[in-house]
Write a structure and sequence with these properties.
The protein is mostly helical and about 475 residues long. About 75% of the residues lie in helices and about 0% in strands. The chain has 22 helices and two strands. A hairpin with a 2-residue loop joins strand 1 and strand 2. Helix 12 runs parallel beside helix 14, helix 17 packs across helix 19 and helix 19 runs antiparallel to helix 20. The radius of gyration is 23 Å and the shape is globular.
Length: about 475
């Protein structure tokens, strides 16, 4: 874009905003919102954006996406509830999608190119949006806002195209990767502090009476697992002496945690790397895990240390609970006592979603806005009827089947199959650096999404689609990928 065109565009937008605000001020209101709060919040947002653009010397849309990703990882559910003003219900993901997505369309027009690439992954994601949008067209009349809310699991895929375009600029790819890296490394500190001082985070550290940081356990540990892969594969030469032990510590943090889905995701990716003959990550982490396990055994057996004994029992219980599908086993620790019930919770819900959808509309699903939990609550625990608010059955494939039927499942499976082929080719080429770590992160999130509410909300969906866009974008431009410094 030439400087004259850019300046004309800026003047046009500012002039339009000035006219609208002037008209509303003359009328004594601004869309019936709290004008003072909106102006203050807008000024803070603009100032923060200006600082990011100035410091990193990047376009505003790149700086915004990186800030939103950083916020979702480190702030989690708390950051997801932030709004410019209480009366202006625009959440971070939607704000980033509107601004960065709008510029993605405009910039593509100025560059005289399509907003997407001509390959199978791009085509399948476009088809995903089309199938979901067609289903929404019929559902929004019946369910209104609830349909749009459930449709988020589809429209967040737009972040793939935005990130893919940004991956063509080495500085942008480095900045976005850095946002993921720094946030995931800092996250364990945040999780530990949150556990030690919950009152401070929930009551004191608030914005508009909502916590700024509020962790959802499965997502927090999933992102820490991604941090382990990022630190390991991005490090080069002498930096590996401190980076690889740090990556091992992050992996052990996940293994010692209470979340099974994130650990399953990390282990499956580790196995995938081994099959692709990338053995360094597995060797370092198996060695670190063996050392940690030996230390706990010595402390537990030799010194009768209560902490080590509880940790060992917890590891055994979590391993047993993975195979305890019906939730009938008994567990030795209080922390693991709910694992079996959680398994039964998921099994019953998955069963009812499959039956309801198959009997209702197997080809195109029950639709966005439909209550996928109604039959489950009646079968699992009727007493929860008025308290149960979760809308997704803790499995992305069953969410897709319940909302979009077999048509959605076929597109979703083809999309992931194409991504799996590209991942395998990337790993087998022995590529290094950001691109390998991005693909690892994609699959850690996806595995976690098979056991929790992850891709149905912005906390998991925005990082997932951004990672997928970056990984694919860098893979399409190998020469640019090599120029990204570590």
């Amino acid at each position: 874009m030439t400087p004259s065109v850019r300046q004309a565009l800026i003047f046009a937008v500012c002039g339009l905003v000035a006219v609208i605000l002037g008209w509303q001020l003359a009328d004594g209101k601004v869309f019936s919102f709290d004008f003072t709060g909106i102006v203050a919040a807008g000024a803070v947002a603009i100032s923060a954006g200006a600082v990011l653009v100035r410091v990193f010397r990047l376009p505003a849309d790149v700086a915004l996406l990186g800030a939103v990703v950083f916020g979702y990882i480190l702030g989690n559910r708390g950051f997801a509830q932030l709004m410019l003003a209480p009366s202006l219900p625009i959440l971070p993901a939607e704000a980033a999608l509107g601004l960065a997505g709008g510029w993605w369309i405009v910039a593509s027009a100025f560059e005289r190119r399509l907003p997407w690439d001509r390959d199978w992954l791009n085509r399948l994601i476009l088809l995903w949006l089309i199938v979901g949008g067609t289903r929404l067209f019929f559902d929004v009349r019946s369910h209104g806002f609830l349909a749009i809310r459930d449709f988020a699991m589809v429209y967040y895929a737009t972040f793939f195209f935005i990130a893919q375009r940004m991956a063509r600029l080495p500085a942008a790819a480095r900045y976005l990767g850095g946002c993921f890296l720094v946030a995931t490394v800092l996250l364990p500190i945040g999780v530990e502090l949150y556990g030690l001082f919950p009152r401070f985070f929930v009551i004191d550290l608030t914005v508009q009476d909502s916590p700024l940081i509020y962790y959802k356990g499965d997502l927090a540990y999933t992102f820490v697992a991604i941090g382990s892969f990022l630190v390991f594969f991005v490090a080069r030469d002498r930096h590996r002496f401190w980076a690889w032990p740090l990556a091992a510590l992050l992996f052990l943090f996940v293994a010692a945690g209470d979340n099974r889905a994130s650990l399953c995701g990390a282990i499956l990716v580790l196995v995938g790397l081994l099959v692709a003959w990338r053995w360094q990550y597995a060797a370092v982490h198996v060695f670190a895990g063996a050392v940690a396990l030996a230390v706990m055994i010595v402390l537990s057996v030799g010194f009768q240390n209560a902490w080590a004994s509880n940790r060992l029992h917890g590891i055994v219980d979590r391993a047993r609970s993975v195979a305890d599908v019906r939730g009938l086993a008994s567990y030795s620790t209080e922390e693991s006592s709910s694992k079996g019930d959680n398994n039964r919770f998921r099994l019953v819900w998955w069963h009812t979603v499959v039956l309801d959808t198959w009997n209702g509309n197997p080809w195109f699903g029950l639709g966005f806005g439909a209550d996928l939990a109604k039959s489950f609550v009646q079968e699992y625990s009727p007493d929860l009827d008025e308290e149960f608010t979760t809308r997704s059955p803790h499995n992305i494939f069953l969410s897709v089947f319940g909302r979009m039927g077999l048509a959605g499942v076929l597109v979703w499976t083809a999309l992931l199959g194409t991504a799996a082929i590209e991942t395998w080719r990337t790993w087998r080429r022995q590529d290094s650096g950001w691109i390998v770590a991005f693909w690892c992160g994609v699959w850690v999130i996806l595995v976690s999404a098979c056991f929790g509410v992850v891709l149905e909300g912005p906390m998991g969906a925005v990082p997932f689609w951004t990672l997928l866009g970056l990984a694919h974008g860098l893979g399409r431009k190998p020469s640019e990928a090599e120029t990204i410094p570590t």
